[in-house]
Amino acid sequence: MKRRDFVKKAGIGSAALVSLPALAQALTRPASPLSPLKKSGPPPDTFVILLHGFYKPAKRCPDLGLSGVDLCDGSYSTTKIISAPELVPEDGSEHDHRRGDGERNEQKALGDFYVQFDIVPGQPQLAVYDLREGNLKMVFTGDHYTNVPDGEGGTLFLGTNELTITDATGVYQSFIGGHNTMVDILHQLANGSFFEHCYCFISRP
């Protein structure tokens, strides 16, 4: 997908720009001590997970039991979900996704995230979280982004998305009507591929 097409269809580059200090502050919000992806009881009222990895076209299309979701309709791309506390490697080293760390993150994956990049005009843009003990369907309601060259021919899209939870299964059913703020660093590399690094702050209504 060309950059201009992604910007147009994903709603990136709105007039209301998020400041870099505000983005940095949002990224430092503490994660919940209870991971929603572990079998340790119901999820807390608010929890944080991380989307991390390269986007690929959705080819595996499980039936997640969510209304109005067809993951094989050609509009969805997918990346991995990991728990926010696992962001820092145990050895303290930094990851560089341009050097093959996507494979290492794949080993830590705790779920799959699907998002519509190719949306039908007049239809809401959807995001779907496929988690271990349930699934979440969300509708994008607003965004604030700014674009920053990465110095290597690519672009960093920095900002936030606001979403409303419209359907859910499993332990997440009580989250219907709730909210998700995505604090996003989306990197388009010079070769056109997209790497996602996004904290998702998900809360009950």
Tell me what you see in this structure:
The chain is mainly beta and 205 residues long. The chain has one domain. It is built from three helices and nine strands; from the N terminus they run ααβββαββββββ. A hairpin with a 5-residue loop joins strand 6 and strand 7. The termini are far apart. The N terminus is likely disordered.
Ordered list of secondary-structure elements with their pairings:
Elements: H1 3-10, H2 20-27, E1 46-54, E2 56-57, E3 76-83, H3 101-107, E4 111-116, E5 126-131, E6 134-149, E7 155-168, E8 179-188, E9 194-203
The outline comes out as globular
Q: What is the string of SSEs from the N terminus onward?
A: HHEEEHEEEEEE
Largest sheet: 8 strands, antiparallel, barrel
Distance between the termini: 35 Å
Structure in a nutshell:
By secondary structure, this protein is mostly beta strands. It has helices at 3-10, 20-27, 101-107; strands at 46-54, 56-57, 76-83, 111-116, 126-131, 134-149, 155-168, 179-188, 194-203.
List keywords for this structure.
disordered N terminus, 3 helices, 205 residues, single chain, mainly beta, 8-stranded antiparallel barrel
